[in-house]
Amino acid sequence: MKHTVIARIRRHPGYFFACVLLITTCYSWIMVSCIFIRSVVQLQKLQNGGRNSSGQNPLVLRDTIVEERFSQSQNENTSKLILLWSSLFSGFEFLETGRNTFDHFSCPKRECEITSDRRRLMESDAVLFHLRTMSMTDIPRNRTSHQKWIFFTLEAPPYSHFHGFSFMKDMFNWTMTYRNDSDVVLPYGKVIRNNKSLFNFENLYSVWKRKSEMATWMVSHCNTESDRESYIKELEKFLRVVTFGECGVAVCHINKTNECLNNFSKKFFFYLAFENAICDDYVTEKFFRTLKYDMIPVVFGGGKYSKIAPPGSYIDAISFNSPKELSIYLYNVASNFTLYSQYFKWKFDGYDIYDMPDPCILCEKLHSDFFHVQSVYHDIQKWWVTESHCRKWKNN
Ligand SMILES: *[C@@H]1O[C@H](CO)[C@@H](O)[C@H](O)[C@H]1NC(C)=O
Ligand SMILES: *[C@@H]1O[C@H](CO)[C@@H](O)[C@H](O)[C@H]1NC(C)=O
Ligand SMILES: *[C@@H]1O[C@H](CO)[C@@H](O)[C@H](O)[C@H]1NC(C)=O
Ligand SMILES: *[C@@H]1O[C@H](CO)[C@@H](O)[C@H](O)[C@H]1NC(C)=O
Ligand SMILES: *[C@@H]1O[C@H](CO)[C@@H](O)[C@H](O)[C@H]1NC(C)=O
Ligand SMILES: *[C@@H]1O[C@H](CO)[C@@H](O)[C@H](O)[C@H]1NC(C)=O
Ligand SMILES: *[C@@H]1O[C@H](CO)[C@@H](O)[C@H](O)[C@H]1NC(C)=O
Ligand SMILES: *[C@@H]1O[C@H](CO)[C@@H](O)[C@H](O)[C@H]1NC(C)=O
Ligand SMILES: *[C@@H]1O[C@H](CO)[C@@H](O)[C@H](O)[C@H]1NC(C)=O
């Protein structure tokens, strides 16, 4: 018997390798599952405040929620510690480790420190989970009861989907996103009226006279959830759109964005600030920074533009019945200076324009009374995905 098996293996080495492969695969799969289950169980245990959860799972580890040594009468000027648990990818210099971030932005409240040193977990007041880089197999094993675990993302839900959402029940205390109903609202930009007019009407007229092209945009993402590309394709049947970026005629180096926009504004009447997703409140910096130039932004997105933009500063593509109707209107505006200049009236009033997220609000919130309020997101998937009401543009 033994002899025949060995003989068979000798004759067909394929069997042997198949067996080894099968065993290795099973083993790896079991190991990965174990790590995953352990993390999830761990997380559930933390969420249940270290109490006995559903039955005795042999994988449950022996950690407990550490009782806080936290007193309400803490000095309001005591520095708050923010731990970046999962890294922010490059380009997010707005949350640098150390104490500098809040000084750089001249924040009203600066007593906050940012760290990425995980050994300081238990002394942290807030733990920031950047959705893009977090992993369900890498969740802290301890949490204190006064600590805020913060769900952080600046991408729209279609670009920040996470397979672990269903395991994140009761995990986060706060949210930090561009959405208006987040605990820490972090929009990509904002405008504030200052009544300091720096605008020159004659100047606008001479700029307008020299313009020769209708619309442009810069885009690196050619196939999007909002289906803006279909909209543009339809629009291009009636109006010339010059596309820059990965999907267009030339790429503007990221360091030269302002120079490119300045050049565009000499030539183009309109800048298409089209978002890659149509979701509630999702308005990116491309809208805010266009306001700094002598071009009218044409917007396409899910934001409440009338609430966040200076009055009469933009044209909303989605409010038109079709790309064709939009094109007719754009020709009207471009050819009539009286009409065109109305879109710049707000500049006479004077506004400061910011086109970066503002980190001050995080430090302020940590020092506010909200910090002492216990709260938790039971179902983060519902809050983030369902309640963002993302949709696609449909040609009808
Ligand atoms: C947890 O459950 C076990 C078994 O059901 C029980 O003996 C133990 O007292 C429980 N511990 C707590 C803290 O409730
Ligand atoms: C906190 O700091 C501010 C200025 O930095 C100071 O005016 C205030 O008195 C301080 N408050 C306490 C309670 O120390
Ligand atoms: C959790 O915190 C306690 C108290 O600080 C510490 O003894 C324990 O080692 C920590 N557990 C882990 C897994 O870090
Ligand atoms: C954000 O929501 C609040 C109410 O929740 C509202 O008062 C405010 O106007 C909203 N802001 C924007 C920019 O939509
Ligand atoms: C700017 O002027 C308007 C109208 O005159 C006034 O309502 C508003 O308070 C002023 N804002 C600032 C920041 O001065
Ligand atoms: C772009 O800017 C970064 C930092 O701001 C710098 O390191 C890099 O060299 C710049 N690249 C070019 C082409 O200027
Ligand atoms: C902007 O325009 C000037 C003058 O035409 C040109 O020299 C420069 O290269 C342009 N900048 C960019 C980034 O295209
Ligand atoms: C230009 O626009 C203004 C303001 O909307 C309007 O009153 C005027 O009739 C327009 N002129 C022409 C020639 O269409
Ligand atoms: C944060 O959420 C956890 C888990 O649900 C909860 O035990 C804790 O009390 C909450 N903490 C705060 C400060 O809201």
From TrEMBL:
It is found in: Golgi apparatus, Golgi stack membrane. GO terms for molecular function: fucosyltransferase activity. The keyword Transferase applies. Keywords: Glycoprotein, Glycosyltransferase, Golgi apparatus, Membrane, Signal-anchor, Transferase, Transmembrane, Transmembrane helix. Its main location: Golgi. GO terms for cellular component: Golgi cisterna membrane. Signal peptide: none annotated. Pfam families: Glyco_tran_10_N (PF17039), Glyco_transf_10 (PF00852). It comes from the Eukaryota. The keyword Glycosyltransferase applies. Its EC number is 2.4.1.-. Pathway: Protein modification; protein glycosylation. The chain crosses the membrane at residues 12-32. Residues 208-383 form the Fucosyltransferase C-terminal domain. It is a single-pass type II membrane protein. Residues 78-189 form the Fucosyltransferase N-terminal domain. Belongs to the glycosyltransferase 10 family. This is Fucosyltransferase. It comes from Nephila pilipes. The lineage of its organism: Eukaryota, Metazoa, Ecdysozoa, Arthropoda, Chelicerata.
